[in-house]
Amino acid sequence: MALIVQKYGGTSVEDAERIKNVARRIAATKDKGNQVVVVVSAMGGTTDELIELAYQLAEEPSARELDLLLSTGEIVSSTLLAMALRDMGCEAISLSGAQAGIQTDSAHRHARILKVEGKRVVKELEAGKIVIVAGFQGVTGEMDITTLGRGGSDTTAVALAASLGASVCQIYTDVDGVHTADPRLTPEAKPLTEIGYEEMLELATYGAKVVHPRAVELGELYDIPILVASSFSDTPGTLIHGGASMEVRNKVMGIAHDLDVAKITVVGVPDRPGIAAAIFQPLAQAGISVDTIVQNASIENITDLTFTVAKSELAGAMRVVEPIAKQIKARECLSDSKLGKVSIIGTGMQNTPGYAARMFTTLSERGINIQLITTSEIRITCIIDAARVEDAVRALHRAFELETVA
Amino acid sequence: MALIVQKYGGTSVEDAERIKNVARRIAATKDKGNQVVVVVSAMGGTTDELIELAYQLAEEPSARELDLLLSTGEIVSSTLLAMALRDMGCEAISLSGAQAGIQTDSAHRHARILKVEGKRVVKELEAGKIVIVAGFQGVTGEMDITTLGRGGSDTTAVALAASLGASVCQIYTDVDGVHTADPRLTPEAKPLTEIGYEEMLELATYGAKVVHPRAVELGELYDIPILVASSFSDTPGTLIHGGASMEVRNKVMGIAHDLDVAKITVVGVPDRPGIAAAIFQPLAQAGISVDTIVQNASIENITDLTFTVAKSELAGAMRVVEPIAKQIKARECLSDSKLGKVSIIGTGMQNTPGYAARMFTTLSERGINIQLITTSEIRITCIIDAARVEDAVRALHRAFELETVA
């Protein structure tokens, strides 16, 4: 008897019919002799509605109150799913994050899980029940309700899988797995049968939205295989795992892209120790996530410092950086919000220089100008005009022959 | 510095504007130097919507799951109210029933409060905060969420007031107090300035919906004065309390009515010990609440047994009673669902026979036939045709000169 954790996203439980469909899938898993724990997101749209309500009542709703408010969304979908299961004769019980023992720190809106105190879940499983857990939420030592921020329900699922020793964490969504590129941009994109944690992490971080990088990281840490598949079909999906076969494949697995990119360049920065800290520490204090950072080679002790942020954070970042630029006697501060990121991800990048060359050539042949380049061991990312991202993804998909991937 | 508990009903927090209005009233109470605990119901309509959703997913939704589902309604309104207060510069915090320490038994859908473990509420009050508590809900020893059933939020408010030693529990609703009769039927009905617990209990039990009898009982038990007033106006409202002035007033305080009355008569029942038990025990086991019971004087050891139930329970009650009637060799089983109840409530009933006579004469003058009569120390109730209830209430209101009440 295997223990399986399944997670269903908001579109999979959007209305009564879809909840019933999910219930049938869960019942089938249970009928095969498995113990099943299910994590659900709020019904599609609910969270946005609650946030809108909150902003009708306060200019800046308190994070603690928002968390308690938003946590109701996943409780609603969990209880409805439990009712649907019971209606088809399956013993099921729903638990809030607090009841399921998801203990977090008190960083409201983006809490971290400290511990999963799984006694109640285990007790219900042992009683033969399917356990439905409200995703995205937890509870502090003071019994305050927290939410886990972006990718929260995926994280709940993997954390539960890890703490319960599940054999697999299945993340069901509205696409049939991890693709070689975004199928909306690249119709010839193919679902991958399997992918390693590291590559998935890079794909997810660099734009593939199908599973949250935080959940992938947690999966890697506790070695929990994660299956990403569709709740609307019976296609096999993509298994994210740490199998050795990954390392030797030595090829590009997929293309990620991201259109939420803005760039700030501080021009004419005196190149001396402490300058980078002088800029990036205040940004961190202002809660602004800085992504790619590039510093050009210094000429006569003067350099340019470029970095990217999410578009929504550009204005805030400029307000922080402009006075600092003056203070450190930089020449000026430039920004551009119409950018995108395109990345190729795969194993063996470092040992196969041909990849980078093929990427740059492909973009250049399409007349696409590269503004910034960054790399990791298993990723090469180019920042380009947002308007050219779609074209770039398709061209790279062809250039790396991803339409032939198994 | 007084500690005041306020409760706001669903219509008072129906939308963002009304929530802001309620927040202003709470802030004003706090500004007068009081400590304030607020209990809120779900935004008007929410609970019905959630129940409808549940019935889309299950023919008979599990009571435990329904409770967890419904509890979200009051959490939403509590958090929104806390946000509105904070937005106007008042320190406020919302707590779920569980967080506020409302500990109940595990009778889902109609749980009883066992204890209020008020540590968290006290801590927040001492920190100078307004504490908003989600009404209608509690938590069992196993950390399962319960709801308190009808009148739940009123009960939460009075229970909190009792456990915190509040000076008053103010129940805000959409009418400006307890009236001498239902103002919708009797435009000349007047709000009462004050009323005793016992009389209020009878008024509420026999049809006045403005405050739940359960809350009144709890108020009496712990001697908590309850003010019933409107959240939409600044009229003084009605104070329910146990002051001695009540006892000696010796007059009719109000007319209650109820249109949800059905009657069952078991005709020709052999009058021997055990017959009443044979009928009423199975009804109790079927969860059917029996109200008025009348047994006629027995003639030749044969009697008729008549009792009333809510209209919605008539069919179920008949299914229970008919086979028993056969078994005990009663002649037949009759039912009537088009009945109503009209009651006069006041002190000194027993010592002033004139009241009963005046009631019966008034009804008879209007040609209203009385089907059943029951009395308590402070109440006389007549069961009459539903179609004549409105007429009866108005006539009694005039006959007892209630339009001149202070």
Which oligomerization state do the chains in this entry correspond to? homodimer
Strand order, sheet with most strands of chain A: 3-6-2-1-9-11-12-10
CATH superfamily of the largest domain in chain A, by name, is: Acetylglutamate kinase-like
Tell me the span between the first and last alpha carbons of chain A: 31 Å
Helix content of chain A: 25-40%
Tally of discrete structural domains of chain A: 2
* Mean pLDDT figure of chain A: 90
Number of strand elements of chain A: 18
Main CATH class of the largest domain in chain A: Alpha Beta
Overall shape of chain A: globular
What is the helix/strand order of chain A?
Answer: EHEHHEEEHEEEHEEHHEEEHEEHEHEEH
Instruction: Classify the beta-strand content of chain A into a percent band.
Output: 25-35%
Query: Largest interface here, residues on each chain?
Result: A-B, 40 and 40 residues
Structural class of chain A: alpha/beta
Radius of gyration of chain A: 23 Å
Number of helices of chain A: 11
Low-confidence spans of chain A: none
Corresponding CATH architecture of the largest domain in chain A:
3-Layer(aba) Sandwich
Largest sheet of chain A: 8 strands, mixed
